[in-house]
Amino acid sequence: MALPVIKSIIDCSSLEKTVYPYLPQLYDLPQQILQAYNNPTGLKNLYLATNPLISACAFSLFLAPLFLIVSEINKNYSQVDRLWSILPTIYNAHYTIYAHMSGLDTQRLDNMIAFSVVWSLRLTFNYWRKGGYNIGSEDYRWEVLRQKIHPGLFFIFNVLFISLAQSILLFLITTPTYVILLAGRLGEELTTADMVFVRLMMALVLLEFFADQQQWNYQYAKREYLKTAKVPRSFYQEDLDRGFVVTGVWSWSRHPNFAAEQAIWVVLYQWGCWTSDVMYNWTFIGAMSYLILFQASTWFTELITASKYPEYKEYQSRVSKFLPSLYTDLPGDFSDQRAVKMVQERVEEKKERAVEKKAEKKGGKKNGTAKK
Fold it and tell me: The pTM is what?
């Protein structure tokens, strides 16, 4: 039997009932695929006969050595990055398709996949326009890390983390969808709470979009400013000279897109808990691992940024890393410094005018004396 027997809604979150009994399928699956690879009907039957969580896990393990081989051949370690925006939606689509093929209630899953597609479109578009899919494009942090550690250690890091752990992580963050799939076996109707979860995740994607666009607009303006020495409209010279964006949502959070991204998968985890009527369940592993990854990668990113831009440490003291601070003495957009500068400029202008007026008066007196 591919799916566990669900006697109560709480059973959907039971690790002992919904995961452990199906782990042996993971060992047999490769051989079964080889036996049925040229038989479409056999593959379909195998797909339905395999627990969907196990088949998703097997796919993430299958991808890991591919990521490793391609990255080592090309010496480019952003192979997982290229699929980061796609794989979670593939896993969510897998659960949704499986539920449809098995005749389960799919109202929640249909809403889930709609959100997941929007999430993928936004992240894939942003990665594409930044040149992420260009040949040779690589996350700059990998180059910095390669310079800091021994090649042998970096290879081990590639095996264990870049290729394996990240591939498994993208599977783990979607495991709450498996819990939602199992809840569909009881045929419960879509509730207002379900719609709140979906709309909250959509709102977080919208926040990411605005953060991405503000970052993109700033970087474009900075490039134009460096090329032409002209300050583009709606930008201040001191902001462009600073080198990093501090306006808009970036004045409230140093990483608003990262904050929203983490929140999305925490909300999905909470949706799975709500659906199965529990406070917490085993799928927290995915959300928690995602949070840990972002904490570490953001720390490393800021370490590099602070060494590149002198004012970044001041920005760190003004603006919190992820969640906006309710109590702050100085504005995150540095508008206080701009106001002080404007006052100083006005004072200087007044001084210059006063000097000019004195010079004009002296000139007038000299002319009058000469006439006499």
Answer: 0.91
Max CA pair span of the chain: 118
For 44, the token pair is: 């379909």
pLDDT at position 369, please?
57
Q: How far apart are CA 237 and CA 231, in angstroms?
A: 6
Distance CA 333, CA 331 (A): 6
Report the distance separating Cα 147 and Cα 167, nearest Å: 24
**Looking at residue 260, what is its pLDDT?**
98
Measured CA distances, 268 to 15, 16, 108, 203, 264 (Å): 18, 22, 12, 13, 6
Report residue 173 as tokens.
Answer: 């963050």
DSSP state of 231: P
Name the amino acid, one letter, at 55. S
pLDDT in tens, 59-90: 999 999 999 999 999 999 999 999 999 999 99
Please name the residues in contact with 3: beta carbons below 8 A apart, sequence gap of 6 or more: 51, 52, 102, 182, 185
Q: DSSP secondary structure string, 273-308?
A: HHHTT-S--TTHHHHHHHHHHHHHHHHHHHHHHHHH
Nearest C-alpha neighbor of 29 from the set 6, 3, 52, 63: 52
pLDDT of residue 371: 53
pLDDT under 70: residue ranges of the chain? 345, 363-372
Q: Can you tell me which residue has the tokens 């005018």?
A: 353
pLDDT score at 363:
67
Q: Are 355 and 368 in contact (CB under 8 A)?
A: no
Closest CA to 95 of 59, 42, 65: 59
